[in-house]
What we know:
It contains three helices and no strands. It is mainly alpha-helical. It has a domain at 45-92. It is elongated and about 70 Å long. This is Antitoxin-like ribbon-helix-helix domain-containing protein. Residues 41-90 form the Antitoxin-like ribbon-helix-helix domain.
Amino acid sequence: MSRKPSFANLRTATPKPAPATAEPTPVSSGDKPAQARPESRIGRKQIAGFFTPEMSFAMHMLARRQGRSLQSLMAEAFNDVLRKHGESPIGE
Length: 92
């Protein structure tokens, strides 16, 4: 019967060097590869929040019934909040 190898052996092993790449990957702001970001997100910032499952379901259902995206409903809600507090709405 063979024994399982010990993880202690990994501490003394020398790490293998990473393979060299021909070209460095271009980096955009945010330390992500430039080609990994869809063109529709360039020049935009993410705003996120945590909500109850009921709120999430209600917003998704409303978006579905209206044939709109959740993002467009959120933009409308944010513009309403801006107006309520005397700020100019920004738009999409």
